[in-house]
Amino acid sequence: MLPVRILGTGLYAPGEPIDNLELMRLTGIEFDPARTEEKLGYKTRHMAKLRGIDESALDFAEKAALAAIEDAGIDAGDIGLFIVGTDTPEYISPSTAVMLQGRIQGKQTPASAFDMVASCASFASAFSTAARIMAVDPCVEYALVTGVYNMPAFVRPMDAFGLMVFADGAGSFVLARDGTGKSGYLESAFVTDGTQWDYIGIYTGGARRQATHELLDEGRWGLENLKRLPADRNLKLWPVVVEELVKKAGVGIDELDHIIFTQINKSLIVDIMSMLGLPMEKTTMVMDKYAYTGSGCIPMAFHHAVREGRVRRGDLVAFMASGSGLSVAANLFRY
Fold first, then answer.
1. Are residues 193 and 166 in the same domain?
2. Does 194 lie in the same domain as 143?
3. How far apart are CA 9 and CA 304, in angstroms?
4. How far is CA 31 from CA 24, 45, 159, 232, in A?
5. CA distance 84 to 70
6. Integer Cα distance of 30 and 46 in angstroms
7. Domain end among 177, 204, 220
8. Same domain membership, residue 173 and residue 238
9. pLDDT, tens digit, for every residue of 149-182?
């Protein structure tokens, strides 16, 4: 077990919540609110641009990070590692993490900072990376790991699916060394399939397909669904990855005190919990408050789980995250 503990958590979502009826009124799209709430679990969400709020990914990350730092009770100047997990960065370059360090510490420091880009598995991948860096680098006393999502900035105006599903938000952890042996990072599990790169993503603006007037006029910008995602992909994938994760740590699934999944679909999580033989009390879902916040959803859900007393110190906790690419990452730790 790596001697790294979650010392503090923070969360931020911009503006007042927007319910399903208001979303349809603000955007002009139509969908079935009752089915959306029953199957997906989405009731409200936060979207900066629909509230006329001049904030984007870096602002969300900063506010979640400051909340986590306050919760941890540390001096921000002592943070030696900044990782931002996101596939909706402030800019292609420089990294959102570098800019976050500038806002948090306000000057040149010996800290390192970089982004982790693994679609909606970005935060889980960043969490694993930070724990392992801290385990081998004694100079890093504290790390700040933030998952942030600003996909509404990339959704085209009449993309009904994108506007209904995706929302803004960020969650942040302050990690610290733990010498008590009671908290620590146990294991990670990953799955990658780069042959699935062309299902859903943001394909314009990089080196291969640079933004041009022609592409913008054709509507070929922002979030694009190029192929239909297999409906049962996560249903088949998540139980296998969770089983591999606990097997690597030498524990049983029944020993898990809590598990948090990518918050894409309420019905899916209910089915997965049944397949794993775990009661629903052992998971936390927040898509009713935030809809789908991609890279931010797992730390946001964990923040609620801790605040609501669903997760306590000493609990064995797992994260199960997946996203386009295909990128999958899972974490197991003792909180």
1. no
2. no
3. 9
4. 8, 15, 12, 22
5. 18
6. 18
7. 177
8. no
9. 999 999 999 899 999 999 999 999 999 998 788 8
Domains identified in the chain, total number: 2
Domain boundary (177, 201, 224) is at 177
Specify which residues 144 forms β-bridges with. 82, 174
Cis before 94? omega within 30: yes
The domain of 316 spans 184-334
In this structure, the dihedral spanned by the alpha carbons of residues 127, 286, 198 and 212, taken in order and rounded to 10 degrees, is -90
Q: Are residues 36 and 152 in the same domain?
A: yes
Same-domain status, 155 and 190: no
As a whole number of angstroms, the distance between CA 65 and CA 31 comes to 34
Token pair in block for residue 209: 């397909």
Least confident span in 103-117, 201-215, 291-305: 201-215
- pLDDT tens digits, 293-331: 999 999 999 999 999 999 999 999 999 999 999 999 999
**One domain for residues 166 and 272:** no
Alpha-carbon span 64 to 159, nearest angstrom:
28
Alpha-carbon distance of 164 to 55, in angstroms, equals 20
- CA atoms within 13 Å, Cβ hemisphere of 75: 3
Identify the three-state secondary structure at position 249. Answer: helix
CATH of the domain at 106: 3.40.47.10
Residues 272 and 211 in one domain: yes
Q: Report how far residue 170's alpha carbon sits from residue 188's, in angstroms, rounded to the nearest whole number.
A: 22
Helix (H, G, I), strand (E, B) or coil at 239: helix
- Determine contact, residues 300/239, Cβ cutoff 8 Å: no
Closest C-alpha to 280, from 249, 297, 305: 305
Whether the pTM exceeds 0.85: the reply is yes
196 and 74 inside one domain: no
